[in-house]
Amino acid sequence: MAIKVGIFGYGNLGRGVEQAIRRNPDMELVGVFTRRDPASLKIKTEGVPVYAEEALEKKEVDIDVLILCGGSATDLPVQGPKYAALYNIIDSFDTHAHIPEHFADVDKAAREAGKIGIISCGWDPGMFSINRVYASAILPGGTPYTFWGKGVSQGHSDAVRRISGVADARQYTIPVPAALEAVRAGKAPELTTREKHTRECFVVAEEGADLERIEREIKTMPNYFDEYDTTVHFISAEEMARDHAGLPHGGSVLCSGVTGAEDEHTHVIEYSLKLDSNPEFTGSVLTAFARAAYRLQQEGQCGARTVLDIAPAYLSALSGEELRAHML
Amino acid sequence: MAIKVGIFGYGNLGRGVEQAIRRNPDMELVGVFTRRDPASLKIKTEGVPVYAEEALEKKEVDIDVLILCGGSATDLPVQGPKYAALYNIIDSFDTHAHIPEHFADVDKAAREAGKIGIISCGWDPGMFSINRVYASAILPGGTPYTFWGKGVSQGHSDAVRRISGVADARQYTIPVPAALEAVRAGKAPELTTREKHTRECFVVAEEGADLERIEREIKTMPNYFDEYDTTVHFISAEEMARDHAGLPHGGSVLCSGVTGAEDEHTHVIEYSLKLDSNPEFTGSVLTAFARAAYRLQQEGQCGARTVLDIAPAYLSALSGEELRAHML
Predict the structure, then answer these.
(1) How far is B148 from chain A (nearest CA, A)?
(2) Which residue, A199, A301, B198, B260, shows the most beta carbons closer than 10 Å to its own?
(3) Closest-approach residue (CA) in chain B for A291
(4) Could you tell me which residues come within 8 angstroms of residue A97 by beta carbon, excluding any fewer than 6 positions away?
(5) Which pLDDT tens digit goes with each residue over A104-140?
């Protein structure tokens, strides 16, 4: 019997999860849930109903795991604990500073309900976190470095779009090649924020807008851009549509460390991702962890988990025997 | 209180584990156990006693986790079940075809004794297995590729040394650059054994040996060399000592897969290792899993496990709170 999965939120990430479920024969999409008018939503999977959020509250649909595809700023802090009280849930909460608080909220609700809530799934936090932990456990004393890109940062793109006079914007995060190479060579360099990444913005300005002011406002924006070397290109709406429609991303977690009586041997561990579609890959990770959530609850476990608390075997459709025979 | 670790077998791997324990302040080496005469063994850690194997059987030393550093051919199939009946154990059993049988043997002994036995730790099997499972769970339909090298294969070096007229030998396994690049580019090529790796042998021949025969015997050796393009170089004992004393290794697990309604997006996941010392890195992995074994038994679990059954958090010296706050 397939694992019955619900999707709450049908933006880029929700659509990515929908595509991922289609590729996992042991899972079945049983409903998409939305705060919009359900009648206004046309989803890609034939025969699967779209429901209003209220259907979730009323438990109208039999769901094994609910994948929350909302945003970290305002959606997930509310939806996580609310729905962990009713369903096994998965989310991609990615506000690093607030993870401990979100974990505690989901943990409380899930424990009381006997459900599992796996938070902060995706690739960072997510697969990158897993690799930071493995690498630093194997090479204690080594420092894990994380490089993002080249890829579109949706948060930074949104920040540029909020500047007055900007009609549209796309921001690429780009690792500095020399920094990446130094880390790959096991040199364990000390790197400032500016030395690790550059930022490149493509901006469609409104007619008559002051381009110099826009560029200055981007480059000096606190937290988002002021600590980086940023390049700004003004382009037409046509160029934006033609050259920057995708949401590629990726990056690397690198860790070097030494062993031997006199630190004479250097080891470099690298985990890297090259993703044509950030939301579809993130959706694929969420879907694999949905399988884990289902199995954990079947075992009688409950409470909040992160990707660090889940053994790899729980993500695979293969049995323990199959994994040992073919994948180990 | 530190985790008390014993090492059984003091070859390259045992010495690698010894170095790793030194870098993990929550662990303490309490003894090295050997089938040789203990008085003949000089170990690197001051103040730690060397015992004969019998001390293990008699449980003379208080040990939380025993790390078995013997070979897979004849040592571990016997030592695994024997010592899982007495201690939590870790091993690096790497005969892929016999893993299911070894797992069953260790599982039975460990369950009866209430101990944990984690088998097949290291990098392959080990970290590479973990990455094959994660990648294929996230990208179902994608094929994980494993490339080894450039590095010294001890099994292949030994095989060459067994040829009559060979005084010493070192065999390097080398990935074929074109194959690696095709997989990295997400092309998911079909590759034969010959297309994935080449083999390069450095041989010191005995005086008067028939070099042509040695080269022919190497290149046609079933399983080891016959399916590969192999290069053989005859060198002097001095060149061997000068240029080939180390045991570097490494490699990559790569997996590409597609997402999207029309398979329009390709994703590439790569996990790669560059290791100056294969046995010291393997020893570092074993040591991290020793921490996991200790914690699992503290929780009241027992039986055999593989690296696929262990959540990443169990390997880290950090607490769940610390991991969520700093590593997620």
Answers:
(1) 14
(2) A199
(3) B137
(4) none
(5) 999 999 999 999 999 999 999 999 999 999 999 999 9
